[in-house]
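Exam revision sheet. Question 4 asks you to relate a sequence to its structure. Input first:
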Amino acid sequence: MNMDEGRDVAVNGITLRIVDAGTGPLVLLCHGWPELAYSWRHQVPALVRAGYRVVVPDMRGYGGSSIPLEVGAYAIHHLVGDMVALLDALGESRACIVGHDWGANVAWASALMRPDLFVALAALSVPHRPRHAAAPPFATLRAAGMENFYWFHFNREGVAEAELEAHIEAALRRIFFSLSGDMPAEHDFSLTLSPAGGFLERTIDPKQLPAWLNAEDLDIYANAFKRGGMRGPLNWYRNYDRNWETMAPFQGAKVMPPSLFVAGARDVVITSAIGSKALEVLQSSVPNLRGKVLIPGAGHWIQQERPAEVNAALLQFLSANYPT
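Answer key, structure tokens:
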């Protein structure tokens, strides 16, 4: 499967670059930060062989897709709106939506807001977090004494861009390695930053790339972010409070479609205090959760690090809940 063989589709006032392969029921794959449609390169052939039509966009702000400048252009209703419009543009009326990292947030929100379209979902690495009724996310973090959580750093327009864009290959190499299962256990990577530090401060620049990421893979990512920059991808993080306001009508609503959660057991997202709590109570807000699959030794980039295990979990879930 050549992930470069994409085409442009007009949706929701922007253009998405998509890979469209196979025939059958639609499976929509949504990547996270800082990745591309390319992050699903191991899943597309397996899903096509199983009898599915697989569509993989570079999400808004990434790769070959439109990169709006305005922060508000990356609010959750736009991100879900992109997926709704994409189904319409594809001539499809239903899909299983699969998301990793920020793409998981889009998948959860899509199934919550439009369960008529997104009739099944699988989320990788990021569990569903129900809307906090009392206060928006940044105020909640401040009240918990977590003002050094990385969201605050990413929320500083221009600062995070400058850090990551100064040497994009090195930044990506550090991020991919340090959040993976290959990060040595004796090194402590934390999503809470030191007061004067940046996101890369506690990362490691490996002497060699991990087995799941070769030099060609890294070049594809680096070249995309050299062209498009990091502002669009970082703007996703700058909408947490805006998204809290947008989701007010869905306060207390549950994600009803059949769902699957998959993560690496060494993923800092689920081992952190926030993530571990969300994972613990996941079933309460996702009553039709069919399973929680934690892959030993794997880190955050789960579909790239452990493609065979992820593919097996997805195919088992699809065969039972969204069959061809």
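Marking note for examiners. The domain at 7-321 is CATH 3.40.50.1820 (Rossmann fold).
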